[in-house]
Amino acid sequence: MDILDQIYQEIKKYPKIIIHRHQRPDPDAFGSQVGLAEIIKASFPYKEVYVVGKDFPSLNWIGKMDDLNSAEFQDALVIVVDTANAPRIDDRRFDNGDQLIKIDHHPNDEPFGDLMWVQPEASSCSEMIYDFYQRFAEELKLPKKAANALYAGIIGDTGRFLYPATTARTMLVAGALIAHGADAAAISQRENQISMSVAHLSAYVYDNLTISSSGAGYVVLSTEVLKRFGLTEAGTSAVVSLPGRLEEVKAWAIFVEQEDGHYRVRLRSKGPAINELAKNHDGGGHALASGAKAKDLSEINQIVEELEALTSQK
Ligand code: AMP
C-alpha cells in the first residue's frame, strides 16, 4: 500500500473531513482545498466535508470557506493542502482532529502530520489532487466545480503555464480538467484581470525597480505607497511577477512594508535558486518562488546583496 492508498483508506473511513490550506491564500491554496472537498463530496454524498480558513473574498469565485464550530473537529480527519509548515496553516484548530494528513508540493523541510504525501516536482498542489483523483477514478467523481477549482490552482502556480514548474504532466492534467468541464478561458481571464489601482501600482513597480548589472532586481513598496494607490498588502500579489518580464532581470525581490514596520519579502527567480536565501531570512519556499521577512532597511540591503551574489554566479 503506497501513500495514496493510505490516504484514500482514511478518506473512506472518516464520516467527517475538514480541509485546511495556508494563510494568505493564493489560487492554488483555494483550488486544491476546494477541488479536493468537491471530489469527496461528489463521491461520498453522505460524508460531511468542510473547508476552513479565513474568508478571502477575492478568491470566492473558486469557493467559499465554511464557518465551523470547534466541537466539529473532534473525530474528524483533517487534511492540510499546499502548506509547507505547520505555522503557516490557516485556522489553528488543525491539530484538534483525530488524524492529520499533509498533501503538498513544497520541499518537505518541516514535516507535520500522521501521513504525508509531498511532491516538490508537481507544478501545484492542485495537480496532485487531480493525480489523486485519477488514481482512484473508478470510485471517485470529479464534478465541474472541482475541475474549475483545480484548473484555477494550476493556472495560479504556473503563471498560466509560464514558469518552469510546468511539465508535460501539468499540460495533460490541464487538458483532462478541461474535459471534465473546467472553463479554461474564463479562469485565465479571471486570473489575468487587474483593477485600475493594480495597474497604477504596476507602473510604480516598473518606474522604481532597481536592477543591478548582474540581473538582481528589487523594489520597496511602503505602506504609504500602498495607501496612495488604495491597496492593501493582498493587492500586491498581481505585481510580484512583473519584474521577471524584463530581459535584464534574473531574480528579484519585492519588499512590502507591514503595519508594524517589518517587510514581507517576495522572492522570484528565472534561474538561480532563491529558497536558501529565503531560509536565511525567516522564510522558505520553492527554488524559483520563495517568501521571507526583513525586519528593517538594513536587512533589505543585506537581502539585495545576497540576491546580487546569486545572480552574479556563473
Ligand atoms: P509569496 O511571495 O508569499 O507568494 O510566496 C511564494 C512561496 O514562498 C510560497 O508558495 C511559499 O512556499 C513560500 N513562502 C512564502 N513566505 C514564506 C515563509 N514566511 N516561510 C516559508 N515559506 C514561505
The total beta strand count reads 11
Give the N-to-C terminal Cα separation: 44 Å
Overall outline: globular
Radius of gyration: 20 Å
Largest sheet: 6 strands, mixed
Order of strands side by side in the largest beta sheet? 6-7-8-9-11-10
Helix coverage percent: 25-40%
Low-confidence stretches: none
Bound molecules: adenosine monophosphate
SS class: alpha/beta
Mean pLDDT: 97
Percent strand equals: 15-25%
How are helices and strands ordered from N to C? HEHEEEEHHHHHEEHEEHEEH
- How many helices? The count is 10
Please tell me about this protein's structure.
With 314 residues, this protein is α/β, with parallel strands linked by helices. 37% of the residues lie in helices and 17% in strands. It has ten helices and eleven strands. The chain has a six-stranded mixed sheet with strand order 6-7-8-9-11-10. Strand 6 and strand 7 (216-221) form a beta hairpin. The longest helix has 17 residues, at 27-43. The protein is globular and about 60 Å long. The N and C termini lie far apart (44 Å). The model has no long low-confidence stretch (mean pLDDT 97). The structure holds adenosine monophosphate (AMP). The site of adenosine monophosphate has 11 residues, from strand 10 and strand 11.
List the topology elements.
Layout: H1 3-13, E1 16-20, H2 27-43, E2 48-51, E3 77-81, E4 99-104, E5 115-118, H3 125-135, H4 144-158, H5 168-179, H6 184-192, H7 196-208, E6 210-211, E7 216-221, H8 223-228, E8 251-257, E9 263-269, H9 275-279, E10 284-285, E11 289-294, H10 297-312
Parallel strand pairs: 1-2, 1-3, 3-4, 4-5, 7-8
Antiparallel strand pairs: 6-7, 8-9, 9-11, 10-11
Helix pairs in contact: 2-3, 2-4, 3-4, 4-5, 4-6
The site of adenosine monophosphate has 11 residues, from strand 10 and strand 11.
